[in-house]
Amino acid sequence: MGRGYFEGDPTIVNSRMQEKGVNGTVAAEVRKQVSREYGSPQLTKKRGGVSNPLSLSEVVEPVDFEEYVSSHAPGVEPGPLRQLMEFPQDDLELLHLDKECITLEPRVPDEEDSLDPRVRDALSVYTDDWLVIQRKYRHYSTTFTPHSSERQRERQRGLVKQTFELDVTTTDHQDDQDDAKRRSVGLDETPRGSWASSIFDLKNSTPDALLPSVLERTALEDMDHCNTEARQQGRHSDLLGLYPPPDEDEAVERCSTVDVPKEHCGQRIMVKCLALKFEIEIEPIFGILALYDIKEKKKISENFYFDLNSDQMKGLLKPHTPHIAISTLARSAIFSITYPSADIFLVIKHKEKLEKLRLQAEQSCNRLGRFRMPFAWTAIHLVNVVSSMGSLDRSDPDSDSEKKGHGTWNERKKKTFERMSIADDMCNFATFRPATLTVTNFFKQEGDRLSDEDLYKFLADMRRPSSVLRRLRPVTAQLKIDISPAPDLPHYCLSPELLHVKPYPDPRVRPTKEVLEFPARDVYTPHTTYRNLLYVYPKSLNFSSRQGSVRNIAVKVQFMAGEDPSQALPVIFGKSSCAEFTNETYSPIIYHNKSPEFYEEMKMKIPANLTDNHHLMFTFYHISCQPKQNTPLETPVGYTWIPLMQHGRLKTGSFSLPVSVEKPPPSYSVLTPDVQLPGMKWVDNHKGVFSVEVTAASSVHTQDPFLDKFFTLVYVLEEYSFPFRLKDVIITESNMEAELKSSMVALRGALLDTCVSFLHQLLNKIIQLIVFPPVIGGQIGK
């Protein structure tokens, strides 16, 4: 009711208050209260007291809609408002959304005939179309989303502002005029205790419009019809949209907009290797790029191999590389950085031929062409590239742009560096200006300082002046590279699995490689594509107690499907200027060292049908650098291995393995080298002398013991492959249900980031067990 009703017709007010029986108060008391509150301002001033307002209506709590609907069934209260209580039957929509493939080839394994159950389930998740559950009437809800305020303003745009009498505040000038009029009449001439005290307000007020046909008798049906039509006139199409949007702090319910799941990707930079020149060029030199985070003390990318040798140098190795795949000729790489910081370095390493034979370069390349040795290294502090080549405009201070109020170059430089703090949250590798660098400060790679711990110390010293780097032997070299933000859709790009990323117009063009990231910290994003890669890192070898001539040691690594030598699988990625895949790879050689350290990375594809017979085979060779009569080039001096699949789990981690002097006996692949096999001779009395690390970047194998056990039991139940040995427990029909329940309870101990990474598969299996309870021994599981 507007204020005009109170001021224009007190009888109506009093009668309506009596009808409502406000708090059981006598009508006279209400009139007195109204007279004091809404009477002449002069009366209030003359009384000089502050009156306690009388509540004319009790405060009513708003109705809890959910509680009301739950306590009142829709069928109990039929009527025109029933649709507001019921859940809309057509609110939920199921939509099929095609899953986008960013590569020309499908991301599926090569072996499509016999797939491991894990791979089969993973492929069904990664290749099937998205099933999207969409709510049609979600935009009518009061749920707070990042777009609620903007959507509400869009609805209210163009509306006529409604102004009511209570919202209109009179000006001071009008109040003074009213006060003067009221002073001209004595208080004794005006009735007290009633609305008549505001007689001048009544005289000056505008009467309300007359209501026609008030006293005429009208049928109820006709009146309802007229009222319905009147209510529809001038009504806003979205009545609920007029309600102001909820504030983020006061929102009862929050709902973020869900995007289509996609593979995680951090800030991306492109590195192009342009030229490499050494003071003396007599043999091929090969380069490696990788990112390191010295704060986390972690290598945060896989290796990128490049070859900048001339055609003449490449010709020296032609007998060892009859076929060169174009994918191994890449000279530019795209690195992804999820957690940018000031502690990230781009490390560059170079390898050469065996140093003793430089004078006979051509002869040694023919004989030792597949062997390398560490040569030199350097590093680039990426934050220096970003800060020095940021969004600065290094133009002349007297240029027109400076005269327009942009400030001097020094002022803009100061402001830019204020914005670009060295703090982690200010390091941005996505918007800096491209930079072309010429690196000349190379250091000799010493054979006893190749470990990652040594590298982290050197990188920490590069951030500040230190005497440590001065003790390193310099190498005269010059490397020219280009560093820039990576484009959103680069052309001629290969994925880490060497698949052609769209767009790829011509397969004959030298490609750019996407380098797989190893994030410094956990990333909470589900897998959406098939990936099944294995990385092997030989660390160190101690043959100091090994008898015989064992000095120039090389480690040959093979991915074996069985124990026969012919079962070495061609799943090892080539490096630079070689075949795309090979069945064996060698570590660099540390010249005349019986206890070498290694820094090599060996990348492999994990077969889709992994069995207990698959294993990594390590063969240690003594390499004869100088040709001697009746002396072979390679002399095997040790063997060891790692079974890759045991008890349904992919074995990864750090290993300290004993090395056998003799070839392992038959059926060795299902055992670990820690088992004391009869009749075998071991180096250093069966102690662990070879350190190696094995990691996997897989969207198939979880590498979490709790998740692995749950998935393994589910697959055993689906295949009904009883009995099954799971570590020390034999899974049979009698104990299957108890073991499955125990594994589900133990899922609470799984790593959170791993659970999120395999969320789709995990939810699929749990929901499947709920909807379709398994039948074990003729009984339905509970």
Automatic annotation (TrEMBL):
It comes from Tetraodon nigroviridis. Residues 170-190, 393-411 have a biased composition (Basic and acidic residues). One of its GO terms (biological process) is small GTPase-mediated signal transduction. Transmembrane segments: none annotated. This is (spotted green pufferfish) hypothetical protein. GO terms for cellular component: cytosol. Residues 163-190, 390-411 are annotated as: Disordered. One of its GO terms (molecular function) is guanyl-nucleotide exchange factor activity. Pfam families: DOCK-C2, DOCK_C-D_N. Belongs to the DOCK family. Residues 531-697 form the C2 DOCK-type domain.
